[in-house]
Amino acid sequence: MESIQAIKQRFGIIGNDPKLNRSIEKAIQVAPTDISVLVTGESGVGKESIPKIIHQISHRKHGKYIAVNCGAIPEGTIDSELFGHEKGAFTGATTTRSGYFEVADGGTIFLDEVGELPLTTQVRLLRVLENGEFIKVGSSKVQKTNVRIVAATNVNMFEAIKKEKFREDLYYRLSTIEINLPPLRARKDDIHLLFRKFASDFALKYKMPTVKLTDDAVNALENYRWNGNIRQLRNVAEQVSVLEQNRTIDNKTLQNYLPNIGSNLPAVVSNSKSESDFSSEREILYKVLFDMKGDLNDLKKLTMELMKKGSDADVQKDNEHLIQKIYGDADEKDEEFEAAVEDLEILAIPEHKETAEEIISEAADKYHFAEEIEEEETLSLHDKELELIKKSLERHSGKRKLAAAELGISERTLYRKIKQFDL
Prior knowledge:
This protein is of the alpha/beta class. Helices cover 51% and strands 9% of the residues. It has a five-stranded parallel beta sheet, with helices on one face. Strands 3-4 form a two-stranded antiparallel ribbon. The protein has a two-stranded antiparallel ribbon with strand order 6-7. The chain is elongated, with a radius of gyration of 39 Å.
């Protein structure tokens, strides 16, 4: 078995971080087997190196190694790419085509960005993992393949499973062994080593002197967050090597190549939702229903107290908190309501004595007042409502209780309408 240092030299891996060494050690240990491996880590940490290590030191090293970027293949053609298709299986399928699993028989397939696979393709992949069987698109013949599958993703798989974007059974099949690569910001001692390696490579490539960093520039480099990880560091090294005339780079010059992403201080982010944070209409409806249920139970309790005691004063005294909860400051509003209504001039409307014909007509149709609205009137709901209230009050000689009952609204609501329309 090769040593970790030998593997680093062979595959050009730079760094001495303990977590990086542990990831390489796991790759070396699992390589001689046919166990499925899932490589996890942020974008740009170098996940593609692990499958190469596993393949090159395994018994499949003489077989084919195929790397597939699942996120770069359109959803409509990914089944054909992976499993192949028969002639005429779909529009444009003019010939029979072998898929990656057929071509890589006896070798290794690296499925990069496996979290982007469509659910239908995940079902096919699960079957390959379970018994090595697959069916070409447009075919009914079951074919066998003997491939080693190594997958990689930068997606939080548990979140994807929770959102039903990734099958849980497929995740456990893929992650028999899980290898996690640390982000670059967790490998501060390796950052300057990587920069020097990249700077040396670009100096050789572009035939120019190698750039060097001052102490303050090294400190800034190591304390930067590097959201793009090694890929971003490599780009910065290339930009500095090509654009800067002075081959000694200080902190001020380096800052021009580091995007300002704000403070690097950690922030506590709560994943739990607050009680008042509704994420859907269903939750809002549930809360409204629960509130209504509580009010209804309180009303039942008050009604039962009235039935038992039969005294309004005693019930009001014993259940003052319930009354306040349901009606709030209803007593004060009632007093204002009575005082305001007594001052209304509309109560002085002379009493209208209905004739026998009107009484008979009204008895036949309880909605007779609605028929008095002419069809040529404006379509404004405001005007129609105002006219209905006026007519109802006129018929009942200003008696608001009778008018409210006829209109199908409460007396309080009628009072509000009277104030609103300034009658």
